[in-house]
Amino acid sequence: MAQPSLTKRSSFSILTQPPVGMPRSSGPASASAIPSSASVSGSGLLASAMSNSSSGGSRQTTASATPRRGAYFESHWPLYAVDWSTSAFQRGPGRIAVATCTEDSNNRIQILQPTPVAETQANGQQIPSLELNKTAESAVVYPCTRVRWDPFAGRAMGGNIERLATAGDFLRIWEYNPETMTLRQSSLLANKTKSDYTAPLTSLDWNATDNSLVITSSIDTTCTIWDLNTSTAKTQLIAHDKEVFDARFTTGSADVFASVGADGSVRVFDLRSLEHSTIIYEPVNPPPLLRISTNSRDPNMLATFSIDSNVVHVLDIRSPGTPVIELDAHMGNINAVEWAPKQRNAIATCSDDCQVLVWDVSSNRPDIAFAYTENAEVNNLTWSANGEWIGAIAGRGLQAVRMGYK
C-alpha cells in the first residue's frame, strides 16, 4: 500500500486558543479537545480530536449525556515521557508507554493498549477512534526523562515479551508481557565509578538497526553506548563541554549519532572514528539546546530547539553551520519535536501555547499541514508506527489525535 504523502496547503488556520469553556488545566476535560467543527480542513492532512465518546455502551452522544474525550487517557499523576511502539513486527496499533513526573518518589511507568473503535458524533457521522486502556504499570522512584520501546518489539525476545527502556537515575530495561499484562524490570545499567554518585541520565535512544545498542546522555557531559547482550557499557565518551541533554542515532546506522547539550552545539559522532566529531551547528553565544530528533527516512536531516524558544531549527548534516529551515509559528516555548515515521518531510512540534503543529518541510518555505489545540501546555508528543496518530501529553492526560489523508 502506498504511503500517504503531505500535500501543500493553500491556507490554514492555527488554533491558538482553547475551546470555549475549557480552562487550561491538568485535570480532565468535560468536552472534546477540539470540536469537530474546528478541525483543520482542506487539502493535505486533516485532523480530528475524536470527540464525544463514552467509556462504555452506546457511543451515540445525546443531549442529556455528558460528553467525554475519546482517544484519551488520564493518569492520577502528571505525565511527561511517552513513546508509541513502532516495531514492524507488532500487530494492530501497537502500545504506548507513558511515565509520570512528580517531585516525590511515587512515580509510575504505565502501559496503554490502544483499541480501534468507531465513534458516533452528534451529527451521526462515524469516525475512527481509539480506546486507550491501561494494562500494566510499575513503580519507579525518580521521574523518567525518556522512555523507548525496543524497535524490534514482538520479535526480539523470541516470543510475546516486549522490551522498553527508561532513562532517569539509571538506564533500566523492562519486559512487558501482553498475555499476562505484567511489566517487570529485567536489568539496571550503571557505569561503575570510584564514586558512589551516578550522574542522572537526560535521555536515551534505542538503535533501530542493531537493537542490542542503546545510547544514553548525561549531565556529566558524556554519552554512553550500552551493549544489552552483555549488559555493559560498550563506549563512553565526553561528548560536550557541558551537560548533554539528548542523543539520537541517525537512521540506518549502528555507528552514527547526534547529540545536543548546554553548550548550545549540535555534534555528530561516528563510533568507528571517535577521535573526531563534527560540530554542525554552534552559533555565537548559543543558549542550551534541549532536544534533538533524527529523520527516520533521511540520515542527513536533524531538528532541534533551544531553551525558552519558540523556534525549531532544521539542520542538514551536509550543510553545517546554518539551519536549512526554521519553524517559528508557535506562540510559546517549544517542548518537543519529532519527525514522522513514514514521511521524510513531515515533522511535529508541541509547545507551551497548547498546540501541536505538523509541518511540511518539503521546500525551504515550510507549510503547516495540521494544527491541534489542547486545553493545557503540551509537554511531549509521539507518533504511531504508521503516522496515522499523534499522542500528545498535557498535564495528566494523553490525547491521541488522528490524522486522515485525502
TrEMBL record:
UniProt-listed Pfam families: WD40
The keyword Repeat appears for this protein: yes
Name of the protein in question: WD40-repeat-containing domain protein
Start-end of each WD repeat: 194-236, 237-279, 327-369
InterPro entries in the cross-refs: DCAF7-like (IPR045159), WD40/YVTN_repeat-like_dom_sf (IPR015943), WD40_repeat_CS (IPR019775), WD40_repeat_dom_sf (IPR036322), WD40_rpt (IPR001680)
Region (Disordered) residue spans: 1-35, 48-67
Biased composition (Polar residues): 1-16
Compositionally biased intervals (Low complexity): 25-35, 48-58
Alphabetic keyword roster: Repeat, WD repeat
Source species: Myxozyma melibiosi
Keyword check for Ligase: no
